[in-house]
Design a protein that fits this description.
The chain is α+β, with helices and mostly antiparallel strands. Strand 2 and strand 3 form a beta hairpin. The chain has a single domain, classed as HIT-like (HIT family, subunit A), CATH 3.30.428. Helix 2 packs across helix 3. A 5-stranded antiparallel sheet has the order 1-2-3-5-4, with helices on one face.
């Protein structure tokens, strides 16, 4: 069921502390951690703690939580000091778009030259 932790979801396991991660920030509803395969010096994933398979499902089911995820992504960019140099927020939705973990998440990318090759 949407919103509930999924036993087979990598990000649900990270949020639960069953799989280690490098935490960047955490709120009551979101968790931000460093990507294990960074594409730029700053590459942080911001996920809702509630499980939704992708950004569209999250926005449809809980628009307020979708807004919290985006706001937290902005806070990560500020904390990582990439705001002035520019940064990207990327949601991949569906395997054809490169989504490999089917738990809604936004990539915060910055700290280097942003090019089309960094569309992870």
């Amino acid at each position: 069921m949407a919103g509930e932790a999924q036993a087979d979801c990598l990000f649900c396991k990270i949020i639960a502390g069953d799989i280690p991660s490098t935490k960047v920030r955490e709120t009551e509803t979101t968790y931000a951690f460093r990507d294990i395969n960074p594409q730029l010096p700053t590459h942080v994933l911001v996920v809702p703690k509630a499980h939704y398979p992708n950004a569209a499902a999250l926005a449809e089911a809980d628009p307020a939580l979708a807004g919290e995820v985006l706001a937290e992504a902005g806070r990560v960019a500020e904390q990582e000091k990439v705001v002035e140099g520019g940064y990207r927020l990327i949601f991949n939705t569906g395997s054809g778009a490169g989504q490999t973990v089917f738990h809604a998440h936004v990539h915060v990318l910055g700290g280097g030259k942003l090019s089309e090759t960094h569309l992870v």
